[in-house]
Write the structure tokens for this entry.
Amino acid sequence: MKYLLDTDVTIFALKKSEHLELKCLQVGLDNIAISVITQAELTFGAYNSQRIHENLRRIEQFCQTITILPISSQVVNTFGQLKAKGYKKGEPLEDFDIMIASTALSYNLTLATGNVVHFKKIPDLQIENWIRK
């Protein structure tokens, strides 16, 4: 595995973005994963939508085709370190974003996101912008 998809990229993939479909095919589905945190955010989005059952079905189908990484002890430890550093610098980030970044760091993956500026605050995190064409 090489890439961890952030939630924003995953949403574009679920919406059948041609650009994202080509990128995923280019790197290979076996080189892509999502965090269980992204799965949780997608599920919240489905329940908060007008088409709950349709969106839940799409998420379930997508999740059957991709690796979903769990929250391990290493991810939790990295989360604690990153959150503490952010607070000490006066630059706190959202917990879910820190968890996703911690997953990428713990599994030594590049984070594929459209929110590059936001994640650049996290040291040693490898980032690629998959939203911009």
User: Anything to note?
Assistant: The chain has seven helices and five strands. The helical segments are 7-14, 18-27, 36-47, 52-63, 73-89, 95-106, 116-119. The two ends are 23 Å apart (CA to CA). The chain has a mean pLDDT of 93.
